[in-house]
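#structure-requests
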Amino acid sequence: MAKYSFMIPVYNKAEYLQKYFSRVQNQTFSDYEIVVIDDCSLSDNSYPYLLDLSKNDERIKLFRNEQNLGLGLTRNELLKRARGEYVIFIDPDDYIEEQLLEKIEETLQENPDLDIVRFQNISEAMTERQAEIESKKNPYRFSCEPTGVISGEEALLKWMLGINKRNTMPWTYCIKRSLYNDIKYPETNILEDFAITHYLIAKAKRVKAIPFVGYHYLQYDDSLTKNYSSPEKELEFDRKKQLLFGSIIELTKQYVGATDISPEAKAIFFKDIDDRFTYRETRLIEKEKAILGKRVK
């Protein structure tokens, strides 16, 4: 059994797989598998390309959904098939450093009972439009300060409080697979990781953040959450997303509420995510006023 499982959900990403998949294959630490599920890619060479690779690389465990399931359910299928002690999600249009597993393994050799190792990541613009957007932001905004070994409760309060500090994206964590035993990703394509990542951190006993920048989050214009035909369509999408976010917050409270962290920590965390919802609602109302040109009560 491999020590690590890279888990990659794929849907119409052949162009990026051809650019970046070799970085997964060329890790400087060798004890790992690569679990890939193609979510019924259409008019795209993703599956044939991966099939050819898998014939020459026994570490690649390639599967294909019988029907399109979406990101959340495909993540669950990946977890079912992974056999590593630790798992790392990768989006197929991003890339990792070839030393990532080596740095994680060094950390686990020093601290073998860690449940989660968090590594750093950088956001990179891939188009002129995204470059303009990214120029106004900190490219390391999804990263955190390195830590010693801390509890999951401390990590939840250190990493996850504040509007611009939280990172629930699963690709910035190496997580012991057993933490996922009693949890599943919800059936959504956006915000699917919000409740799960908070729960996993709260459930963990020992975690550590290392300084190594191992993941490159690439920003494209064709992102699922950025492809709008008009400001009105963007507003419609944002309103639906806010409604979904409200239900995800309630799910997050349910999951984190079931963990062993202290009542005081739960109260601080719940207030923070409620404040986050209020902040987003206020921003959305301001956006509605600007787009619709009238006061929204």
